[in-house]
Amino acid sequence: MKKYLLSLFLLVSLQSLAQEVGLRPRRKWFLPDHLKLQFAGNIGFVSGGPGYVSRNQTLETDLLFGFLPQKFGGDALVTTTLKTTYSPWRIGLRDNYYIRPFSIGAYLSYTFGPQFDTKWPSYYPAGYYWWATAIRPGAYIGGKAGRNVVLNNRRRSLELYYELGTYDLLIISYIQNKSFLKINDIVSLSLGVKFAFN
Amino acid sequence: MKHILPWTALGLVLLLSSCDNLFQYNPNEETLLESERNLTAKNIDKISQLPVSDTTRFILMGDSQRWYDECEDFVQSANQQKGISFVLHAGDISDFGLTQEFKWVNEIMTCLKYPYVTVIGNHDIVANGSATYRKMFGPLNYSFAFGRDRFIFINTNSREYAFDGSVPDIAWLKAQLADNPTHKNTIVVGHVPPFDADFDKNLEKSYTEALATDPSVKFTLYGHQHRFYEGQFYDDGVNYHLTTSMGARGYMVVSTWEGGYNVKRVEF
């Protein structure tokens, strides 16, 4: 394993010798612009995966694979999530630090398991239950702070983000029960890191 | 770095203000506090310590699914009733089968002055619902006795099991009915009544006959149809009573005594 990592490291550094800082590396279009690792947020205990960013860096779309171990969730659950985040403002700070004070986004998650359905079985009359148990749409607001760095002569950035989110079934519950439910009953926090290759 | 601090602070404030369920990992997670586990056994234990009088009075309510505000009003109304020993929830505790919903309803129901026990509803079986029900309440079929009465709670949500013949468990029901050495008055409680389309048509006859052939069964209790409804639908001496939903703001007060019983509808 150590040997393998070492040769990989050498390969990466050799490649980077050939590139100049400041040039956008010629990356294949299909290679992801960043990787994310997220904690909580109703898409797994931890979730992670690749993502793409728009040219002006405000719109990110990620494909995350999440896992919730039984120890933390009472049931082991695997989830895939497609999420899009819009962070319109960037405030540059000293030492290559920056913040994106506001983000807003939405996601669609799919949880695997025989007990979850996308389409209800035929023994239910049409519309018996109106929601799909496997698919959950959700939305969130948040913010992030990051820093541009140079690693091996390549421009990289590292961001930390937080999101306060909820999902369809909780929103409906809240709208119909504004006396019993408070907004914080349906909102939960997630934290994440993003490593960008741009 | 200095500028990041205010934002971190803001994040922390928001974070602390929603401390209850700060982090959620999946809508279908089954995370419960110790105080939210084995509620059936815990509440039966509480009921068994209550004094028994000539008349036993209890409340039948049900279908609290996504009607939390109304359910809170129910608790307020129920707490003003006189001489109540306990509350029976006729099922559909949750709407989406989410653990969070079960927890919210339990939070409301623990404001009752009385212990409560439940029977599982079809909505409580959706997704991870039945797994959560087992952890939070206990077995899907169970029974207990109080005073001269014996309560049998049975899962009657056949459609959730694709009408495979396993639900309701007729063999279990018959065994429970037979196990009545002191000839207690037997009250069978289910969510879906046997004449409903969600009840297995192939089991309807054996179910209703099992009740009718037992002389200790005078009446039986259900929810599901979101309306008050009652009658001797099978002309076999057994009275069927359905309570309405929390959304329809109603419940029933049931009184039983030696040789008789009475059902009173309450709207709140």
TrEMBL record, chain A:
Domain of life, source organism: Bacteria
Signal peptide: 1-18
UniProt keyword list: Signal
Name of protein: Outer membrane protein beta-barrel domain-containing protein
From TrEMBL, chain B:
Calcineurin-like phosphoesterase domain sequence ranges: 57-227
An MF annotation (GO) of this entry: hydrolase activity
InterPro entries, A to Z: Calcineurin-like_PHP (IPR004843), Metallo-depent_PP-like (IPR029052), STPP_CPPED1 (IPR051918)
Domain of life: Bacteria
Coiled-coil segments on the chain, per record: none
The protein's name: Calcineurin-like phosphoesterase
Organism: Dyadobacter soli
